[in-house]
C-alpha cells in the first residue's frame, strides 16, 4: 500500500512541475512562446526591451548617416539626418 501511495505521489508531483512559462534559455529577440499568466509580465518586459533595442539601432544608424552627410557637406542630408537623430536619440548627445 505504501508503495502505491509513493508511486501515485511521485506521478502527481511530476505533473506539477511545469516548464517555464516562456523560453528563458533564449534572448528576448528569439522568444516566440509565452504561456500562462506568469508569462504576461515577461512578454511586456521583452516587448519593452525590443522597442528600446530597435530605437537604439535607429539612433546609431542616424548618427552614422549624419556624420557621413557632414563629411560630404550635403545640407539637405544634414537636415534630414539631424531630424532623425533628434527623433531616435532621445536624451543622448550627438
List descriptors:
94 residues, mainly alpha, 3 helices
Descriptive account of the structure:
By secondary structure, the protein is mostly helical. It has a domain at 58-89. The protein has helices at 2-16, 38-72, 75-88. Helix 2 (38-72) runs antiparallel to helix 3. It starts with a helix and ends in a 6-residue tail after the last helix. The model is unreliable at 11-17 (pLDDT under 50).
What's the end-to-end separation, in Å? 75 Å
Class based on secondary structure composition and strand pairing:
mainly alpha
Global Rg? 25 Å
The low-confidence parts are 11-17
Specify the biggest β-sheet. Answer: none
Helix content: 55-70%
Strand content: under 5%
Shape: rod-shaped
Average pLDDT, rounded to a whole number, is 80
Please write the string of helix (H) and strand (E) elements: HHH
Instruction: State the helix count.
Output: 3
Topology, element by element:
Blueprint: H1 2-16, H2 38-72, H3 75-88
Offer a concise description of the structure.
This protein is 68% helix and 0% strand. It is an all-alpha fold and 94 residues long.
Amino acid at each position: 500500500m505504501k508503495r502505491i501511495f509513493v508511486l501515485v505521489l511521485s506521478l502527481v508531483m511530476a505533473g506539477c512541475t511545469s516548464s517555464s512559462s516562456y523560453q528563458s534559455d533564449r534572448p528576448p529577440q528569439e522568444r516566440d512562446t509565452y504561456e500562462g499568466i506568469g508569462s504576461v509580465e515577461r512578454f511586456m518586459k521583452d516587448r519593452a526591451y525590443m522597442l528600446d533595442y530597435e530605437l537604439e539601432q535607429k539612433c546609431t544608424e542616424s548618427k552614422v548617416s549624419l556624420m557621413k552627410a557632414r563629411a560630404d557637406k550635403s545640407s539637405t542630408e544634414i537636415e534630414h539626418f539631424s531630424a532623425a537623430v533628434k527623433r531616435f536619440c532621445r536624451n543622448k548627445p550627438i
